[in-house]
Amino acid sequence: MNVDVVSTTAALWSGEASSVVVPAADGSMGILTGHEPVLALLKPGTVRITPTSGGGPVELEVDEGFVSVDDDAVTVVVERGARATEQ
Q1: Quick one: which of 75, 7, 86 has its CA closest to 44?
Q2: Which CATH architecture has domain 2-86?
């Protein structure tokens, strides 16, 4: 699935991923290929992305925002964010 994580000032991460975990307002939400369409509010926390291109997971510390999932396209929009780790 195609994943884009953006803040109000910059693109934080973009690419193909096999899974994404976001800090939804009601608790962590895991997103896999074929996920039903959803729009959810995010609370401050960590977005975890497992890229399909190999390498380790990517973690981004984010502020409040929202996530949109539609047709294997995941868009995460946050006020602020920064790369925490890339293992």
Answers
A1: 7
A2: Sandwich (2.60)
